[in-house]
Amino acid sequence: MNTGDEQALRDIVTKLEAAWNRGDSVSWTNEFAEDADFIHILGGYFNGRIPIERGHRAIFDTIYKGSTAKLAVQKIRSVGPDAAIVFMLAELKITQAGLPPVLHARPTMIVQKLGGEWKIVAFQNTIITEEGAPARKDALADGTHSSLNAAIADHHPIKGFAKAPSSEKP
User: Fold this and answer.
1) Which in 12, 62, 108, 163 has the greatest CB count within 10 A?
2) What pLDDT is stored for residue 166 in this prediction?
């Protein structure tokens, strides 16, 4: 993978972070392929850019309203000239009452060069619990605790097997 491609992947992460921090579900999904697959932190699954956008609009309007994210690329692994896996750490600061103030996760995205442009074709976000926290000190993984699963699950508008909310075009 050349330096330009690696920078393009880092730019996708920067765009995702900025879109999240604006609560902008449309910009968030601009980085995804039309038929992308997405698994959120509770195991819910979306297929396609529109369902991914609707799911993010739902959380930006509820559980994560006003939240801010910090995404850090941990590793980029090339799996061919037109495909790569991007491993990240995420820190989410939550403002909604009844939720922990900080959530840590390990998002992983598979990106593919489609029509000369890198797009996310698959994305999985995994919450970090105390049991899964790294042994070494890592600024984005500090403060994790097991009660996160229950608190997030109780307040999350989209549960594991549920589909994204239906609505008109975004």
Assistant:
1) 12
2) 53
pTM (whole model) above 0.85 = no
Please check whether residue 27 is in contact with residue 15, taking contact to mean a CB–CB distance below 8 angstroms.
yes
- pLDDT on residue 154: 58
Read off the pLDDT band of 2 (50, 70, 90). confident
Q: What is the domain partition of the chain in residue ranges? A: 3-155
DSSP letter string over the chain? --HHHHHHHHHHHHHHHHHHHHT-HHHHHTTEEEEEEEE-TTS-EEESHHHHHHHHHHHHTTTTTT-EEEEEEEEEEE-STTEEEEEEEEEEE--STTS-SEEEEEEEEEEEEETTEEEEEEEEEEEPPGGGS-SS--GGGTT--THHHHHHHHH-SS-TTPPPPP-S--
Overall fold of domain 3-155: Nuclear Transport Factor 2; Chain: A, (3.10.450)
pLDDT computed for residue 140 by the predictor: 46
CB 143 within 8 A of CB 102: yes
